[in-house]
TrEMBL record:
The gene is hisG. InterPro entries: ATP_PRibTrfase_cat (IPR013820), ATP_PRibTrfase_HisG (IPR001348), ATP_PRibTrfase_HisG_short (IPR024893). Belongs to the ATP phosphoribosyltransferase family. Short subfamily. It catalyses: 1-(5-phospho-beta-D-ribosyl)-ATP + diphosphate = 5-phospho-alpha-D-ribose 1-diphosphate + ATP. This is ATP phosphoribosyltransferase. Lacks the C-terminal regulatory region which is replaced by HisZ. Keywords: Amino-acid biosynthesis, ATP-binding, Cytoplasm, Glycosyltransferase, Histidine biosynthesis, Nucleotide-binding, Transferase. Pathway: Amino-acid biosynthesis; L-histidine biosynthesis; L-histidine from 5-phospho-alpha-D-ribose 1-diphosphate: step 1/9.
């Protein structure tokens, strides 16, 4: 019998796609229609335990080792910069991080940039030698340039509907995003067989999903 694997799973929009992937890999975890408020879901036949976490907290659980592995967006990994291993690109929850603003935006001195991702935004503009004032918001970021809080925003674009419906334009793409499987550094060594076995189950499912999209 392999060691118990604790997996931090993001609640919310990634869960639907991540849980489908895990089910296709043969792990009996509930789908997104399950209305249970349970935060810890045991899958005894696979000797796994799923911890239902807020997406942005997944790397924290994994770095501290209370979860051995986790599923998290590349955006959160870039922002949180936690000391974890990135094992697999799961190819799900695809979107991109971009600089967005009004279509007729003109460069100004020391512009204000609103974002949920202050570290990503600061690093992006610093690397380009542009001085900006970063303002942290927690949601509805597209409001900021519309109501004059910021000159531009750094946020995610998936279908583009939010920026279109609000008369905004995508100025620059910063990086593309998918969800990743991450591991705690110690767990990766101590529970290597179990982690490797899970990766081996997930990999063909990821490859098949990619092939179906191509
Ligand atoms: N259209 C999208 N907008 C935002 N994130 C997306 C989108 N598509 C995929 N994602 C991915 O989903 C992850 C979680 O999204 P988000 O931060 O909006 O959390 P949530 O599921 O709405 O839950 P919460 O609001 O509680 O944090 C992001 O980190 C990103 O990797
Ligand atoms: O290109 P689209 O398909 O329109 O997706 C992008 C939007 O989705 C996310 O917002 P979310 O739904 O998480 O809301 P919030 O950030 O305002 O809470 C993101 O912050 C964008 O606003």
């Amino acid at each position: 019998m392999q060691e118990l694997l604790k997996v931090a799973m993001p609640k919310g929009r990634i869960y639907k796609q991540a849980s489908k992937l895990f089910r296709e890999a043969g792990l009996a975890i509930p789908d997104e229609t399950d209305e249970s408020r349970k935060l810890i879901i045991a899958v005894p036949e696979a000797n796994m335990e799923f911890i239902m976490a807020k997406p942005v907290d997944v790397p924290t659980y994994v770095e501290y080792g209370v979860a051995d592995i986790g599923v998290v967006g590349k955006d959160v990994l870039m922002e949180e910069n936690r000391d974890v291993y990135e094992l697999l690109d799961l190819g799900i929850a695809r979107c991109r991080m971009s600089v967005i603003g009004l279509p007729d935006w003109k460069p100004v001195l020391n512009p204000r940039v609103a974002t949920k991702y202050p570290n990503v935004a600061s690093q992006y503009f610093r690397e380009r030698g542009q001085q900006v004032e970063v303002i942290k918001l927690n949601g509805s970021i597209e409001l900021a340039p519309l109501i004059g809080l910021a000159d531009r925003i750094v946020d995610m674009v998936e279908t583009g509907s939010t920026i279109r419906e609000n008369g905004l334009a995508e100025h620059e793409e910063i990086f593309s995003i998918t969800s990743r499987l991450i591991a705690n550094r110690v767990s990766y060594r101590m529970k290597n067989n179990a982690i490797q076995a899970l990766c081996d189950r997930l990999q063909p499912v990821i490859a098949a999903a990619l092939a179906a999209k191509a």
